[in-house]
Amino acid sequence: MEEKSAPHVLIFPFPAQGHINQMLKLAELLCLSSIQVTFLNTHHNHKRLLQFTDIRSRFARFPGLFRLESISDGAPDDHPRPSGFTFDFSKLFNMNSIMSPDLRNLLLSNTNTTPVTCVICDGIMTFAIDVAKEFGIQTIAFRTTSTSYFWALFCLPKLIQSGHIPFPVDADMDESVLTVPGMEGFFFRRRDAPSFFNVKEVTNPALQFFVNETFNSSKASALILNTVEDLEKPFLSQIRPNHFQNVYTLGPLHSLLNNLRIATTNGRDQIDFASSNHNGLWEQDRSCLTWLDSQPLKSVVYVSFGSIAVLTKSQLVEFWYGLVNSGYPFLWVKRSGGEYSGEDENIPEELREGVRKRGCIVGWAPQEEVLAHRAVGGFLTHSGWNSTLESLVAGVPMICWPHQVDQQMNSRVVGELWKIGVDMKERCDRSTVEKMVRDVMGGARREEIMRSVAEIGDVAKKAVRPAGSSYMNFEALVQDLKSGCQENC
């Protein structure tokens, strides 16, 4: 009888922080389960991870199980990454030709380690599926977005056929979209659609890129989603029979990882683990945790617009006024290296004074720890999926200002379906910001929102405990990988 190879998984994320963050967590989960992992990054992001995180020392706990590799992204070293590169579509469209040869060479030269038995690639890096199949290697697609957004992409042909896409000139953005099965349970409007659905032509390059990658990802034998089965069941029930029979829902991944870390160490080193969750491309400023220690319980508004969003000077000033005028202390992540178009010159002195009195601004923060801090009572967020899940688990209500891609749908789910926050959408005038901050932090709606936060958070926490859906799905994934990824993955 032929002996099966030991499992060796190549994990290949899309070159953006939110994607790298989730897939590094999956890598650590697999290492905790004694599965060998090679983590493949672009040269640029590889250097930043080594510079700003403890990735080497963290994974040193798994001798012989974890290896870092990198390949070129095709951009010159002085390209204004990471925020600019991620949605430079001329680069996105050429990822296949740029990265496929290097990926192929890596798999060919993989002679000093156990052969790769499964490639887990980002769901918008589907050229990796084709390359893996050349070598007879099984593949799993990992979509790092919400399931509702992922399902909406599959529905695009029907939306075009029904006339919803492209949006008509002067369309009523609050008109409901009734042709997406599974979304009948909440009021899904045009303004809640993915940002690139709002196009003039269906041939729009951005629209075509994401939709093509979505359908191409179905060529993988299985799908991983960072979500909770019971929270996105209507959308999962559509994806499984139509596109993927085998779907591993493993979310919230950060919470599942924290639970397994504790379980495998019998509770030791929990404090060290808390500071080891940083998988980012910027240096964290941990001084904000000391500042939070000095603030009253549930009094602080945490503000972060993620790793990609770029605000105009006008938007910056309006948010700033709204926060100062709300009267609540605020911790604002004002991203180093380009979150705002333009310098902070000519900022009114009253705004700077507002920061001195009850604010704290940092370049990057340890977000999981911030959201779990006793002083944080609300989160003004761009509604990225990582941020949404982290806030949900921490029990912190959200004020959603979505920026792009899946964030419009995420914010609608938060505000309308789960009712664990408010959806500000494209509005960011100072009076709206002030009102929504006050509503979430201490207004009449807070009690109702906090009840929903507790209920939804409890569902997520149960999913990652032993016998929970995400816990059991992860065990099934590990078993499938150890059995050679035959049939199911």
Automatic annotation (TrEMBL):
Enzyme's top EC category: transferase
Keyword line: Glycosyltransferase, Transferase
A Pfam family reported for this protein in Swiss-Prot or TrEMBL: UDPGT
One Gene Ontology term of the molecular function aspect: quercetin 7-O-glucosyltransferase activity
Keyword Aminoacyl-tRNA synthetase in record: no
PROSITE patterns: UDPGT
EC code: 2.4.1.-
Top-level taxon of origin: Eukaryota
InterPro entries in alphabetical order: Glyco_transf_N (IPR058980), UDP_glucos_trans (IPR002213), UDP_glycos_trans_CS (IPR035595)
Glycosyltransferase N-terminal domain ranges (all copies): 9-150
PANTHER family given in the database record: GLUCOSYL/GLUCURONOSYL TRANSFERASES, GLYCOSYLTRANSFERASE
Family: Belongs to the UDP-glycosyltransferase family.
Protein's UniProt name: Glycosyltransferase
Source organism per UniProt: Stephania japonica
